[in-house]
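User: I'm writing a tutorial on reading structure tokens. Could you give me a worked example: one chain, its sequence, then its tokens, then a sentence or two explaining what the tokens reveal?
Assistant: Sure. Here is the example chain.
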Amino acid sequence: MFNAVQVINQVVFFLVIISVQSSQASVPETLLDSESSRPIVHTPVGCFRGLRAQDGDYSMFLGIPYARVDPENVFGTPIPVRFEGIFEANDDTAICPQKEEFNKTITGKLDCLHINIYVPNSASVDHPVPVMTHIFGGKFEFGFPSRYVYGPRFLVRHDVIFITFNYRLGPYGFFCLNTSKVPGNQGLKDQVHALRWIKENIRYFGGDDSKITLEGNSAGAMSVDLHQHFLQEPLYNRVIIQSGVLLTNGVIQHPDPDAPLKLAKQLNYTTNDINEALSFLNKVEPHELIAATTDSDMFVGPCVEKQFDNAENYIMKYPANVNSVRIVDVLIGFTNDEGYGGITVMEKEEFEKKDFVSELLEAYYDFKNESKILNDMKKIVRSFYYGSNLHRADNMRPGINIFADFVMYHPIIRTIRKYLDSGVENMYLYMFSYAGERDFAKDKDNLSNTEGTATHADELGYLFDISYMKERVRDEDMLIVDMMTELWTNFAKHGNPTPKPSKLIPLQWPRVSQDKLPYLEINTELRLGSRPMHERMSFLDLLYKHIGRYHKEHLWIEH
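And here are its predicted structure tokens:
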């Protein structure tokens, strides 16, 4: 049952959403008054009545269940759904259980495996248009796909169908146990169920099921990279990977098989039997389980599963043991200051206690108690990034750079090389460097924009019609919106973001190749460059070359 505080938090959260996005939580009366004018799509799994958008020439089919959580095993495989009659697809407010990122309140319900489809009026069964499917980020702990953040207006005006969907998070999505009922990665498997639904049904909405682009940011991009490594079914044709890859340390977890026992104990149920603990947790009110997970500081994420014959298996080996990826068209990149937001949010005292060099070396490498090698590497890395500068709060730049290089830039550059080695030939690299009033991360975390750069996830405000940014329409910001959405939708349509020069995009973006690493810098003036962060990436290449045998990914390679 809900306790009073949780009820109040839930109400506050939804009041905030409603106040900034009047159409999200309720159906406009003008649309409901005339059901005959509302679009209906007939598919093999049911009929869906959507809404006509009021801010553009497109229709919305919101909150369609692509599966439902099994009440007998809320941590396991979902159940397919079909509908008799007409399903009213008019509500995109479903959120899977989580501690959400905006107000830090615990919210959500298990009836959340829903999909949102935005269809331009130009689409029809006879004239299908390309499809863009977005996976939201949030550390596999939080996030939701509604118009509160992922408003479709900027994208669908380019004659593409845009899709978002929910997937289970935290313990519901990523318990990884030695049991066939909960082998792990259920959140990723939810994503696969959604992708199957899209592949099988999107044609009835006017989508071209031979032109499906899978895209994601942060943990969503890591999800895309995971599917590139492990998905066996041809459920998409192109990928857009924004600021997140598998090679970032910590994406693949070493699971705690006793996690259910610990959470059950946190909730005053003590047992040494995993099945008993799971049976108990299965009946626990979701908000209580999320609260217990948060209070225990427990993180669960993607893992290498134990194999069971009677289970749906997915990640069966560490990515280092997967020598090739799916051959599809690839658009991949990052912002030009990925570490800015993660570091500048720290209090002065917290920052000055940090030893980024030690933390990152020990996170990515295991020197097997060879302390001399570790200490030598610390000196070399510290000298390269800090020189004679002191580690202090009024000079955060060295810490920002080393954090971004280890966590984001070098893993992405190495991922590009792996894709090339796998045979991917059609790949484009970007760097987003614009700073404006629609910067998503800086706005959310209330960061001052003193650097004039783009931090992790800032570009989202220029791809999506974020509800609380509707009044932010400066000419420069909207120029970036226009450029970004034209590049992204061109890629979805043609596999090439610049099929021909236009007034808005007066250049041709060269592909990445084995001997060249060109990239497009996205700012008010588009600029072509080569080998981003060249000196820093060359240093980390050299470091990896000399101590790569200690890199943790190599400790997992099967010989």
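What the tokens reveal: The longest helix spans residues 397-422. The chain has two domains: 4-321, 336-555.
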